[in-house]
């Protein structure tokens, strides 16, 4: 059974940094596109960042481009999200997700519906 477990969230002040981790119990982890999404109260789940197999390709939302960095360690079956210069509007529950389908073509989707596996989320709160 596939399991994704996020960690690293917390309460920080604006301008601070955080690093989220996602541990995956996916035997073929290296063959999955891994992504981070976030959801604030009353809002839809939105794409944050994703990384292709082997780390050869990545994609970011406009709102985090230049501040966030996604990375992966296939040996440890983990994906990370380094978040810098955090803003109050970054406050949300952050979810890790995995897509095994589009990995072959290295096509990174920003749609939640294209991701098969999800974690429970980790809360990030940025105070002003």
Summarize the structure.
The protein is mostly beta strands. It has strands spanning 4-7, 10-13, 18-24, 33-39, 46-51, 58-60, 68-73, 78-83, 92-99, 117-118, 122-127.
Overview of this structure, please?
The protein has 128 residues and is mostly beta strands. Helix content is 0%, strand content 46%. The protein is built from no helices and eleven strands. It has strands at residues 4-7, 10-13, 18-24, 33-39, 46-51, 58-60, 68-73, 78-83, 92-99, 117-118, 122-127. Strands 2, 4, 5, 6, 9, 10 and 11 form a seven-stranded mixed β-sheet that branches. Strands 1-3-8-7 form a four-stranded antiparallel β-sheet, with no helix packed on it. A hairpin with a 6-residue loop joins strand 5 (46-51) and strand 6. It is globular and about 40 Å long. The chain starts with a strand and ends with a strand. 33% of the residues are buried. The model has no long low-confidence stretch (mean pLDDT 95).
